[in-house]
Design a protein that fits this description.
alpha+beta, 16 strands, single chain, about 270 residues, DNA-binding, about 25% helix, Deoxyribonuclease I, Chain A, six-stranded mixed beta sheet, globular
DNA sequence: ATGGTTGCGTAGCAA
């Protein structure tokens, strides 16, 4: 089974790129982020015509996540509970989770759009946006801890807005102090992994200079001034089954590209 | 170069 993650930066602006990629890559499951539309305006028909079931957690103008799957999608939940609550969520559509009911057994998958978090400071205090990012990472860890209790294949796929290490950016000095590359962000990401999760790229490859995002500005793509912020985070039951992780960077050369490219995990289940 | 680009929505925010 191939499970992918892609921040498309608006599904409506990206339909040509998305359908082209779905037709050629043919992932079994694709987790999309930043669809930037409400559910009612999502292009269900065009994507279902390619053989996918679709579940969406949309929002007007910003954010928005979706799960596409060639297999049935069950037990869908939208939004990440706020701390201290079972089911109360906030109004930013950044999380959708479901069971993929495949013929080789169930896999739980989440499509995650972790807050960017910039700017970091507001005067001498952390800006509310960075506080929101750190708090959201705590909420994700709380949810992950609960899901790990089920001891099943689990793939938390998405745009984490976290550069795990200096080797994951072309310009470490330039990213110093950014919300994606701060010690507090690294600590929160490590705390998530310490629950017993594996970041797939680190397990499968780990090489420096493999990026998933290049800014639209200042010729970042042409200069390979990229960062690796899109990740597949796996339970042991999924990490034991992954055989490869691919970054479809050729998509960045397409017409009207997203600033992110798809990542694809290949699992032998 | 305190810049640069894209998307949403039609001004200014978010990334």
């Amino acid at each position: 089974m191939e499970i992918a993650s892609w921040n498309v930066n608006s599904i409506k602006a990206r339909m040509h790129a998305v359908t082209d990629w779905l037709k050629s890559a043919k992932p079994d499951v694709a987790c999309l982020q930043e669809i930037k539309t409400v559910d009612d305006a999502f292009p269900f028909m065009e994507i279902e015509a390619l053989g996918y079931n679709v579940e969406v957690h949309g929002q007007k103008s910003y954010n928005g996540v979706a799960i596409l799957s060639k297999y049935p999608i069950e037990d869908v939940s939208r939004g990440l509970p706020i701390l201290g609550s079972e089911d109360e969520v906030d109004d930013q559509a950044r999380y959708i989770e479901a069971i993929i009911s495949s013929d080789v057994g169930p896999v739980r998958v989440a499509s995650i759009y972790l807050p960017n978090g910039n700017p970091v400071y507001d005067g001498s205090e952390f800006h509310y946006k960075y506080q929101y990012k750190l708090r959201w990472m705590e909420r994700l860890a709380t949810r992950a801890e609960r899901l790990l209790g089920f001891e099943e294949p689990l793939v938390l796929a998405g745009d984490y807005n976290v550069i795990p290490d200096a080797k994951d950016t072309h310009d470490p000095a330039g990213w110093t102090g950014d919300a994606a590359f701060r010690p507090e962000t690294h600590a929160a990401f490590q705390k998530l992994l310490n629950l017993g999760l594996t970041e797939a790229f680190e397990q499968m490859d780990g090489r420096a200079g493999q990026y998933t995002f290049w800014d639209y500005q200042a010729g970042a793509w042409q200069n390979n001034n990229g960062i690796r912020i899109d990740h597949l985070v796996l339970s042991a039951q999924a990490a034991d089954k992954i055989t490869a992780l691919r970054i479809d960077k050729m998509v960045r050369d397409g017409k009207k590209p997203s600033d992110h490219v798809p990542i694809v995990g290949i699992f032998n289940f």
